[in-house]
Amino acid sequence: MRYTLIVASFILFFYFLFSSSLLYIPEATLRNFGFSIENPLSILTYTFVHVGPSHLIANLILLIAVGVIAEKKLSFSDYLSIYILSGATAAITFALLNPNTILVGASASIAGLLMAAFIVDAKKAFFYTAAALILSSFVAIPLLSMMVDLYRGSLASEEFLSSRMLENVSNKKAILEEELSRLSSEKLSYEERFRQGEISEEEYRQEIANISTREEEIVRQSEEVKEEESRIITKLNKVINTKENVEQGKQRESSSPSSALIHVVGAMTALLYLYIFKRDSLWKAKPYHHSRLERRSRKSKKRLKARSYRRSNSWEKSSSNSRSTQRKERKS
Questions:
Q1: Angle, CA 60 vertex, CA 3 and CA 28 arms, to 5°
Q2: What are the pLDDT digits (tens) for 185-228?
Q3: 11, 175, 233, 283: least CB-packed within 10 angstroms?
Q4: How far apart are CA 278 and CA 70, in angstroms?
């Protein structure tokens, strides 16, 4: 199972790398690493890029189901060659027929491994594939969709709370600014009164010192409020970006069609590879359908042998009966 785990780990690693800790890979990244005629260098990277988590989990479940069967009779080089060649051939074929479409996902490569699994052990591959499809369609994807909806709800709540906090901080900031403006006016008033001789110098200095102390305190509070406002704005922007990423990704995932063509091309590529390079070793390995034919042949031989044995026994009995009848006739 180690080959399959290596490939699955790479798929997961690149998904989280390309998604930048978000739930969905941004569309710009999909365009950069998805395969198309305009971007031929991504023929190796497009299999590690997926439209969304549902697309990812469905491919991973099927990969694990068929990969553990295929790797029993294949070396790592053969396993990797089938994965890469199936994906590359399917991508080129799809791009030639759909020049304005971007291809992402590992399903074509997995289709090649699926064909290898059926050649190695058809019966087990059939049941594993059926189990993987049932698990994906009725358990994993619905559960993941429910978790995504809950995550969307939590993002909406977090956005609402962050907006309220930002509003409160903005009100507090406005109050502090008003207080600073009032203290500045009060300071000017004391200066005017001092110039007109309405208050003594000592009283003037004392009042100005009190106002300056209050101003310093308000400035300190204003700095704290500004820092808090900056943190809230950063958090709010992150929540908004994540929410937009989820909304766009969910819509993109639901509207992205799947192509049967790439699956067929990927499977046929794997079949051609195995026929050219692994025909003798796979026959000697006695896959399920080969061994099944051999078992049927052995059973047929046993039946023929048993029939011939019964016929020989019946012939011996009939001959012995005829001899005994002849003896009786002679005696009589």
A1: 110
A2: 988 898 888 888 888 888 888 988 998 899 899 999 999 999 99
A3: 283
A4: 12
